[in-house]
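User: I'm preparing a small set of examples for a lab meeting where we compare how different chains pack in three dimensions. I only have the primary sequence for this one, and I'd like the structure in token form so I can line it up with the others. Please keep the answer compact; I'll paste it straight into my notes.
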Amino acid sequence: MKNYSVFTLLFTLLFIQACDSPSTKKGNTALDSTVTKDDTSLISKDSARLSVAATSDSSKGQIFLVRSYRIWEKEDPTAVLNNDWFDLYELEGKYYLDKVDYEVKDGYDECAQVPSKSVESKRNSLLFLNIKGLKTGALENLKINHSEIWPKESVEYNFRKQHVILKGSGDIKSTEVQTDEKGHEKIFHEVAHYKLNATFGGRNELTLFQKDQYEHVFMSTQFVGDIDRDGQLDFIFSNPSHYEEEALLLFLSNGGNPLIFEANEQFDC
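Assistant: Understood. Below is the structure token output for the 269-residue chain.
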């Protein structure tokens, strides 16, 4: 498993201020999300916009994929786990944080011809987290109406006093119709030079991640809600580079000092 990267974004005060919107409802209830084509009217022309990229800081914590790992030269990726980790899991359509409950099983990867270890959770886990300040219990979350955010598409989320727009940009190299496991047809694009930006309250914009090339895969939104209980939205994205990789990216609002965590694992032959 590759090293985890942690990103700290600048301009904290601007981020905290960027929370209100005419379409935002007040209260503690998670509200709604909508999908639109990219339109400059989504952002106020009078507001001061700021585009921010992320910088690395590995001291803030890490996330862990709940899956099987290849053991290379006796390096065991599962050794970092202990009872201090949190489990973000789904139960009957709701999400919860609790201390991890798992077991590790030894195995053998026939494809790579090396030993393996599988982390098997007792719950329907999305990922494990080792981040200070998290608390156990039910989480507020929004329904994801549109998981993929293709170039020139935007998705809006309203939560408490916060209005967030996620905007995709990039180059569509080709388009085809695919059929999923349920027999439903959907449009799939091969995308290069992709960037996902987030705009908060129409004021300041930051880049969540960039990807030079997707090979037969694309990003998707896995979770939208309040993981750290600061009243602001957090996001989890699936973001592999190719079809033989699993990768998750967590954007944590962190009380106005946003952090980004990544974890990935290759399973190519």
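A couple of notes for your slides: The chain has one helix and 20 strands. The first strand starts at residue 6 and ends at 8.

User: Perfect, thanks.
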